[in-house]
Amino acid sequence: MGSKALLEGGPEELAGKVVPVVPPGQELKIPHRGGYEHYKVTTRHEDVEKQNVTVYRWWERTEVAE
Prior knowledge:
The protein has 66 residues and is mainly β. It is 0% helix and 62% strand. It is built from no helices and 5 strands. The chain has a 5-stranded mixed β-sheet with strand order 2-1-5-4-3, with no helix packed on it. The chain is globular and about 40 Å long.
């Protein structure tokens, strides 16, 4: 089974969601409302959906270049 991340902070629609981490690494880039929300890995883990997942904390938003 692949790694999963619990998103912390950022837009209300994304905060608290569990998403796949492909490939596992230090940063997640999630497409959202015409841009990207960036999350960095933390050392924390939470038990969610009967599994232990890594917490990723929001740190910035970038816009999609046109």
